[in-house]
Amino acid sequence: MDKQPEEYKLTAADIQRTEKQITEMDLTREQSILAELPLKLDELLKSSDMDNFTIELINNVSKLYNVIMSLPALHDDLKRRILYALDYFVDKDDEIPDEIPEFGYLDDLVIVRYVVDQILMENAELFQA
């Protein structure tokens, strides 16, 4: 791919649909999503070349995972946002199925980055080391 990861963005319609899905995120799924995450990351690390897309995706997923694990009393709105992104990442059959070579994780990257960017705008302190 000739483009850089930051060149891929959600359209206005995608943002509207994503925000609706975030508000509908079932918080009772937290433990199952968090249990799947290490397996999915492992799968990605084993099967992929470490291009800029993969590195950014892994870094952003790790940021979200660290926030949700280190702050169990996180406000439900933030928790929904983070869980939505993590759930999207672990779902193999999302908009672009993950097994499609070179493109399978592109939608995951865009969704996860969108959520990270939204959190950074309002709660940057959550990602402070």
Structure description:
The protein has 129 residues and is mostly helical. The chain is built from 5 helices and no strands. α2 (30-47) crosses α4, α3 (52-70) packs antiparallel against α4 and α3 (52-70) crosses α5 (106-123). The longest helix has 19 residues, at 52-70. The chain is globular and about 35 Å long.
Concise overview:
The protein is mostly helical. The protein has a domain at 56-129.
What is the number of strand segments? 0
- Globally, the shape reads globular
Strand content: under 5%
How many helices? The count is 5
What is the N-to-C succession of helices and strands? HHHHH
Mean pLDDT: 90
Rg (CA only): 14 Å
What's the N-to-C terminus distance?
32 Å
The structure class reads mainly alpha
Characterize the main sheet: none
Low-confidence stretches: none
Indicate the percent of residues in helices: 55-70%
What order do the helices and strands come in, and which of them pair?
Layout: H1 12-23, H2 30-47, H3 52-70, H4 76-90, H5 106-123
Helix pairs in contact: 2-4, 3-4, 3-5, 4-5
Task: Give the tags.
about 130 residues; mainly alpha; 5 helices
